[in-house]
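All the exercises in this workshop are built on plain-text protein records. Sequence and backbone structure share a record, each on its own labelled line. The question running through the whole workshop is how a given chain folds. The record below serves as our worked example for the rest of this section.
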Amino acid sequence: MTYYTHATAKFQFGGYKMKKFLITLLVAALLASALVFSASAAGYQETAEQLSELGLLQGSDGDFQLGRQPTRAEAITMLVRLLGLEEEARSGEYSHPFTDAPDWASPYIAIAYELGYTTGATETTFEPQGICSSQMYVTFVARALGYSDDDVATTLWAESLDFGKAIGIIDDILLSDASFMRGHMAVVSYLALSVRPASGMYDTLLQKLVDDGAVDAADAARQLERFALIDEFLQIGSELQDVTSIAMVCEMSMDMTMMGMTIPMYVFLDAKVIVDDFDLDCAMAMEMSAPNTDGEMETQSTEMYMTDGYIYVSAEGEKVKMPLDSALGGMSMEDLLAMTDLAESLAPVAVYPSYMISSITKGTAGAGLTLYTVEFSSDVFNGLVAQIFGMLGDVGMGELGGLDGIYVDNVVVKFYTRPTGELNRMQLSADMAMSIMGFDAYASMDFDYSIYAKGADVIIEFPDDLDEYIELDVLHEMMQDLV
């Protein structure tokens, strides 16, 4: 065992295997909330394929070139196809005043111009090779949905991104990337299909396209059913968005294979959390089981409290405290809450945009419970993981990762709801391959959350002796030694 001493306090950590366990536990905790971060535009292949199946997106042998920036001509073409107007555009009955429109794009630009979706760059130029920004494409789509300057305080162009978020055709995840790519354009188009047009005559744009004969009814039926099911699922999660206090039990199990050994790990956590702006009060009782240096399973019980900017830990008969920013490796509470979106939602799994969902089913789970099973796109999720570790580096915790080459697969979330529709239980599972300190490792993870109190029902009682805990402000150095 390795001992660290500060005054009369000591912390005990296992050898190499315990070191790996701590690192892996950190990664697992991050992955549990990873879906609030941005994904790579090239990761939206499944979204593009769904548009293609509806006949609304074209590619060459499945190559939609999602990872490059779209031109204005490509964006208008995408818009016209999205609206099912390609054949009408090619009829030649529409015109435009732009002298720089290429022949291939001219029909699309013409119909978009006459329908009021675009006004061009100037009165006589369209600038077809100019890069299409998120502001441009969201403006095009909002106009196509029937919105105009009358629906905003100033102009639709000036307020397009905020307005686009309000009506559900773009979100902060898409906007967090530095450049607007064809993949993002495909996602905005996909989201538009599930949005109600401004006229209110149809529940979704996709339903309007079916009635217009632009999309096959059978193909659309599958997608409309999917939209409805996703809406149900997202509504369950959204009900937790305003929850600022929660109490839950979490069980995490993990099997990691590394250097020819399979290492089982288990964590039981009973946690109560109350967030008030950037003030965090928390009480956790945790049991961690992992192999010791002799290969035998060893369980350590820990109590942890967070309040008044400090973290208090009671373990192995020792009681220590440290400033919270030191315990977080230099992160402030604002950094932590921004990373996990905890200020808005304490749910272990956040409200996911529909384009992240690869498949969704609904069934029963006994005792009157309804079960939603959701599988996420591996491509999107791996983009999220990359963002997680990039952010860790930005806040000075990159050295805690010790990982690279991470690939996550088979990400599945399950929601269990009571007959009242209230969320009762959540499960998250995933497989992960990675490199830890130069060694290949594989892990299978399962998280199981049961909520037993929310809101005013969450009451935290702190020990009376917190002022007697000995201050220990060296955790960051300790973790550096571990890694």
In short: The chain has a mean pLDDT of 80. The chain has two domains: 16-38+243-482, 55-215. The domain at 16-38+243-482 is CATH 2.50.20 (outer membrane lipoprotein receptor (LolB), chain A).
